[in-house]
Write a structure and sequence with these properties.
The chain is elongated, with a radius of gyration of 51 Å. The strands form seven sheets. A three-stranded mixed sheet has the order 1-2-13. With 1230 residues, it is mainly alpha-helical. Among the domains are: 28-120 and 529-571, Kinesin motor domain (Kinesin); 151-326 and 473-498, Four Helix Bundle (Hemerythrin (Met), subunit A), CATH 1.20.120.720; 348-466, Up-down Bundle (Methane Monooxygenase Hydroxylase, Chain G, domain 1), CATH 1.20.58; 579-672, no CATH class; 748-774; 994-1075 and 1125-1176 and 1212-1229. It starts with a helix and ends in an 8-residue tail after the last helix. Helix content is 62%, strand content 6%. This is Myosin motor domain-containing protein. It comes from Brassica campestris. Keywords: Actin-binding, ATP-binding, Calmodulin-binding, Coiled coil, Motor protein, Myosin, Nucleotide-binding, Repeat.
């Protein structure tokens, strides 16, 4: 490319600026020039004597200066844009002249190409004909619409004309659509070219309106069309800034809000819904719907995607409307078509659009090359010459690189799009690995994700940052739903509702669909006789009379003109008719012209005489190889020069002969002496110089080899030492870190278990002492009451209540340990049998008491009769005394049984606690086993993914052909694959293991009580910051949440410690608040509902646990006296006060420091109000003096309650755990 530009510049400057500047160059770098070519150039460049780039450029420039903008290259028409109107070229008279004329008979013109194109051909705009040659229909075919131009422009190009026409519309239309100048819109002011001198946008607007009326588009539809176009312009001016939340965005200012509101009005949709569709995404999971906010950059991409899809849908609707209005003939026999497609593109930043455009040009260039080669073949066949040895170079290797299955770039791009975790960097690495040995594919230096393809028109470097997003063929669901729900029927018709089957269809990509359209395009081209028009832009200023050489030369190369010339040069680029050839080169063999009257024979003999080879003699022309024309011109110049020199020689020889003879003799002697002396001196100097050079060469070689050997040895030693030291330091640090983590884990676990055992032992000891004291006090009261006859009935009642209390306690213990009965059925059976025996004894005791009560009633009934008798019955008194003694004995026996029952209960409680401890240990081991199983499953998944990657890599390498260079044996590609793949696998394993180790360190730290910081639970905020840092909310699946739930469930299994449960209640409530605020789970009904949500199983247990664990203490503290209900009610108040103090210490209750009875009854637990009524009834009822709490007395916590209880919502002032601060993996917590 560079050499071609240099040669063309030299030839151009040598031919045009020779009078104004002096050019110094090598003779081999100068192209020959045809001095006999006309000053106005030739209309067919195949007639040039010298067919090379400077000659083509010179011919185009000569014709452009005289406004001859059309030039042939064979059947290819080259059109140079004059940037001015030339009406005389397209008049009716001109059209009539070219009608029926053969190609090449008149001057180059599109009319000549169009007249020759009447055969089968079609693309884009096609006119259909029936068998009689009459027009029967027409159609417009759209292919490869450049949607990216809507949002991105390159200076100095304009956007689509409809935007500028709408801005130049009448005042009432501009006010209706709230439009302004084009320079105020982002989609238009990216380029400085806002107006074109030859285009009147206002007139074009009216012409477009009239054209819409002609094709049958109603006024309502026209207004809706321009409303959509205006909405696209307003959308482009909506800018976004960071929102209040993390990774969120909002309209930047009032100007953006105005354009957003205007766009919503023009599209007849809700403004808030339009903003949400641009700034949010809804992700539907298996369990719920999650609303995810977008950052400003992602919101901008969403805005551009909406603008492009709206323009594309509108464009397709217009094409379908025009086709239906024109009418198509499906049975047409012939058609004429015109294909207008963009050319090769190479910018500073080349993305997926340029990749597809250049693929199209590669395809068309291959077809163009084949067509040119075919024309060459037809010319050779027509002249009946041998052409079989002409070499044809194809660009099929580039096409295979891009679209070959399964190893092409498009196939790899589709594969990357089907994997949700793929990024543009992994896609680029896959390309580097697959095409590292491809001669058309290179990796730019200092680039991590770019790649370069060597196209036929030059090297192009592509940036892969947006390849994956632009390749996905889908419409964003929020945009589809928004515009489908528009109140404007036209807008809603552009976005019809999608069926469920289409959503479940297989993956489809833009690249694959693009490639299929190219296949259909080439199928049509292969069935036609194409005629090419190459449009050339002479300058980037879009002004007439300016001819930029390098710009035009690059367009000729990209347009394939130079390739067509190269194909012509590969055969016979110079073709001369017989008479023209003989007239020009007859002086090389004059005798041939005299003896032969046959032109072909004369031409053949002339060429044989001059000694040329490789030429061909056709029927009407002489075909010369490249360079032979220049050789003939050189010989012709030599013949003419020799003729002139002969005349000059005769005259000059006569004058100089005399002088020469006189001087020759004397000069011979002088010359012989001088030459001998000089020759000897020269020889001696040369010999000494050669010896000195040899000595210097050997000495410098020895010194250089010595320095290099010493430097190389020193460098290798230093590198080996440094690398070894770095590796040893890293290994030592990893071992120390791992050992420290293990020691910390075991030490913290041991301290936690030791503290738990001591606390549990102290609690059990305190409970036993307190219960023993209460029992002894009750026993003393019973003994004192048993001494009196009048207190017998009260003692019986108290004993009955005590038995009921014992029965209630046994039932409570049984209900608490129902979860452990399945694991200890045999032991529970024994305890159950003993309990049944106690119940039988209690029932027998109740029966005896009932009988004694009846006997006492009978005695009381008989007593009045005895009192009426004045005589004292001593027998009756003795009988009563005996019965009293029996009752006392029975009471003492019942007291002994009660003591024995309490001892058995204590033993059973101790056994149950030991078994509960064993069950908790087993459960903790089960949790660890589950965690280990999850790690194994993740490792297995990683190994399977790595295995698939290795298999694909092996298949890709096995399909690569093996080459040999310089006689060496071919290298095996599998060795490199075996060396590189495990390294990548180890890197992936180390990353996965580090993530698992970090999750383990987090769980080990927060499973203990790590306290509060500024009144906020440290564990909740530590977990939340770690989840944000690990991007767990962006992953489709992660097991960190499951492990955290298991850890929290295991931590609250110990329901005897109210402080422990209150701590976890605060931590989990705060964590739930943060997750709800971050994820913003969908559904407006939840926000509008005023009812508190039902507590989940986890939080229900946590809210219910303090009441359950304190129930025994509250009930055990009751007074058994009938006449003191306030005493045991006061004990309940004291127990609740102690519980509230515990909750206050763990920051569960923030509103009040001191809580009264009314606050407890009406605010904290509504169940207590019903308890008060029960206590009142118990004080009035002698038979019932006990009460039980409702099983479901938990307090449901709503998100609003938790949100109002938290004073601050940010992380300012919260100090993380010390254990995690020492871990280098949690540096982000600082």
């Amino acid at each position: 490319m560079k050499n071609g530009k240099r040669r063309s510049n030299v030839a151009w400057e040598a031919s045009h600026d020779v009078m104004s500047r002096e050019v110094v160059t090598k003779a081999s770098a100068v192209y020959p020039k045809d001095t006999e070519a006309p000053a106005s150039g030739v209309d067919d460049m195949t007639r040039l004597a010298y067919l090379h780039e400077p000659g083509v450029l010179q011919n185009l420039h000569s014709r452009y200066d005289i406004n001859e903008i059309y030039t042939y290259t064979g059947s290819i028409l080259i059109a140079v844009n004059p940037f001015r109107r030339l009406p005389h070229l397209y008049s009716s008279h001109m059209m009539a002249q070219y009608k029926g004329a053969a190609l090449g008979e008149l001057s180059p013109h599109p009319f000549a190409v169009a007249d020759a194109a009447y055969s089968r051909f079609g693309k884009f705009v096609e006119i259909q004909f029936d068998e009689r040659g009459r027009i029967s229909g027409a159609a417009i075919r759209t292919y490869l619409l450049e949607r990216s131009r809507v949002c991105q422009l390159s200076d100095p190009e304009r956007n689509y004309h409809c935007f500028y026409m709408l801005c130049a519309a009448p005042k009432e239309d501009v006010q209706r659509y709230k439009l302004g100048e084009p320079k105020t819109y982002h989609y238009l002011n990216q380029s400085k070219c806002l107006e074109v001198d030859s285009i009147n946008d206002a007139e074009e607007y009216h012409a477009t309106r009239r054209a819409m009326d002609v094709v049958g588009i109603s006024t309502e539809e026209q207004d809706a069309i321009f409303s959509v176009v205006a909405a696209i312009l307003h959308l482009g001016n909506v800018e976004f800034a960071k929102g209040a939340e993390t990774d969120s965005s909002v309209p930047k200012d009032e100007k953006s809000l105005f354009h957003l509101k205007t766009a919503a009005e023009l599209l007849s949709c809700d403004e808030k819904a339009l903003e949400d569709s641009l700034c949010k995404r809804i992700m539907v999971t298996r369990d719920e719907t999650i609303t995810k906010t977008l950052d400003p950059e992602a919101a901008t991409l969403s805005r551009d995607a909406l603008a492009k899809v709206m323009y594309s849908r509108l464009f397709d609707w217009l094409v379908d409307k025009i086709n239906s209005s024109i009418g198509q003939d499906p049975d047409s026999k012939y058609l004429i078509g015109v294909l207008d497609i963009y050319g090769f593109e190479s910018f500073k930043t080349n993305s997926f659009e340029q990749f597809c455009i250049n693929l199209t040009n590669e395809k068309l260039q291959q077809h163009f090359n084949q067509h040119v080669f075919k024309m060459e073949q037809e010319e050779y066949k027509k002249e009946e010459i041998n052409w079989s040895y002409i070499e044809f170079v194809d660009n099929q290797d580039i096409l295979d690189l891009i679209e070959k299955k399964p190893g092409g770039i498009i196939a790899l791009l589709d594969e990357a799009c089907m994997f949700p975790r793929s990024t543009h960097e992994t896609f680029a690495q896959k390309l580097y690995q697959t095409f590292k040995n491809h001669n058309r594919f290179t990796k730019p230096k200092l680039a991590r994700s770019d790649f370069t393809i060597c196209h036929y028109a030059g090297d192009v470097t592509y940036q892969t940052e947006l390849f994956l997003d632009k390749n996905k063929d889908y419409v964003i669901a929020e945009h589809q739903a928004l515009l489908n729900s528009s109140s404007c029927s036209f807008v809603a018709s552009l976005f019809p509702p999608t069926s469920d089957d289409s959503n479940k269809s297989k993956f489809s990509s833009i690249g694959t669909r693009f490639k299929q359209q190219l296949v259909s395009l080439l199928e049509i081209l292969n069935t036609t006789e194409p005629h090419y028009i190459r449009c050339i832009k002479p300058n980037n200023l879009l002004k007439p009379g300016i001819f930029e050489n390098e710009n035009i030369l690059q367009q000729l190369r990209c347009g394939g003109v130079m390739e067509a010339i190269r194909i012509s040069c590969a055969g016979y680029p110079t073709r001369k008719h017989f008479d023209e050839f003989l007239n020009r080169f007859g002086i090389l063999a004059p005798e041939v012209l005299v003896k032969n009257s046959d032109d072909p024979a004369a031409c053949k003999k002339l060429l044989e005489k001059v000694g040329l080879e490789g030429y061909q003699i056709g029927k009407t022309k002489v075909f010369l190889r490249a360079g032979q024309m220049a050789d003939l011109d050189t010989r012709r110049t030599e013949v003419l020069g020799r003729s002139a020199s002969i005349i000059q020689r005769k005259v000059r020889s006569y004058l100089a002969k005399k002088s020469f003879i006189l001087l020759r003799n004397s000069a011979k002697q002088i010359q012989s002496v001088c030459r001998g002396y000089l020759a000897r001196n020269v020889y001696e100097g040369m010999r000494r110089e050669a010896a000195a050079l040899k000595i210097q060469r050997d000495l410098r070689m020895f010194l250089a080899r010595k320095d290099y050997t010493e430097l190389c040895s020193a460098a290798v030693s230093v590198q080996a030492g440094m690398r070894g030291m770095v590796a040893r330091n890293e290994l030592c640090f990893k071992r120390q870190t791992k050992a420290a983590i293990v020691i910390q884990t075991w030490c913290r676990g041991y301290l936690a278990r030791l503290h738990y055992r001591k606390l549990k032992k102290a609690t059990i000891t305190t409970q036993c002492a307190w219960r023993s004291k209460v029992a002894r006090g009750e026993l003393r009261k019973l003994k004192m009451a048993a001494r009196e006859t009048g207190a017998l009935q009260e003692a019986k009642n108290k004993l009955e209540k005590q038995v009921e209390e014992l029965t209630w306690r046994l039932q409570l213990e049984k209900r608490i340990r129902t979860d452990l009965e399945e694991a200890k059925k045999q032991e529970s059976a024994k305890a159950q049998s003993s309990l049944e025996e106690l119940e039988l004894r209690c029932k027998e005791t109740e029966a005896l008491l009932i009988k004694e009560r009846e006997a006492a009633k009978k005695v009381t009934e008989i007593a009045p009769i005895i009192k009426e008798v004045p005589v004292v019955d001593q027998e009756l008194m003795e009988k009563i005394t005996n019965e009293n003694e029996k009752l006392k004995g029975l009471v003492s026996s019942l007291e002994m049984k009660i003591d024995e029952t309490e001892k058995k209960l204590q033993e059973t409680t101790k056994i149950s606690e030991d078994r509960l401890k064993q069950a908790l240990d087993a459960e903790s081991k089960l949790v660890k086993l589950k965690t280990a199983m999850q790690r194994l499953e993740e490792k297995i998944i990683d190994m399977e993914a790595e295995k698939n990657i290795m298999r694909q890599h092996q298949q890709a390498i096995s399909s690569t052909p093996v080459r040999t260079t310089l006689g060496h044996p071919p290298t095996t590609p599998f060795k490199e694959a075996e060396f590189t793949t495990p390294v990548a696998g180890n890197a992936e394993k180390s990353a996965a293991e580090r993530q698992i180790m970090d999750a383990d360190a987090l769980i080990d730290c927060v499973k203990d009580n790590i306290g509060f910081s500024n009144g906020k639970p440290v564990a909740a905020f530590t977990i939340y910051k770690c989840l944000l840092h690990w991007k767990c909310f962006e992953s489709e699946k992660t097991n960190v949440f499951d492990r955290l739930i298991q850890m929290i469930g295991s931590a609250i299994e110990n329901e005897d410690d109210n402080s422990h449960l209150a701590y976890w209640l605060t931590s989990t409530s705060a964590l739930l608040f943060l997750l709800q605020k971050s994820l913003k789970t969908g559904g407006s009904g939840a926000a509008q509902s005023k009812k508190p949500p039902t507590a989940t199983s986890l939080f229900g247990r946590m809210a219910m646990a303090p009441r359950t664990s304190k129930g025994g203490m509250l009930r055990s503290g009751r007074s058994f006296g009938k006449d003191s209900p306030a005493t045991h009610w006061q004990s309940i108040i004291d127990g609740l006060n102690s519980l509230l103090v515990t909750l206050k210490e763990n920051h569960v209750i923030h509103q009040k420091y001191r809580i009264s009875y009314d606050d407890i009854a009406h605010d904290l637990c509504p169940v207590i109000s019903s308890m008060r009524a029960l206590m009142t009834e118990e004080s009035n009822d002698a038979d019932s003096d006990s009460f039980l709490l409702d099983d479901d007395s938990s307090i449901p916590f709503s998100i609003d309650d938790i949100s109002s209880s938290m004073q601050e919502k940010d992380f300012v002032g919260i100090k993380p755990a010390e254990e995690l601060l020492e871990n280098p993996a949690f540096v982000f917590l600082h």
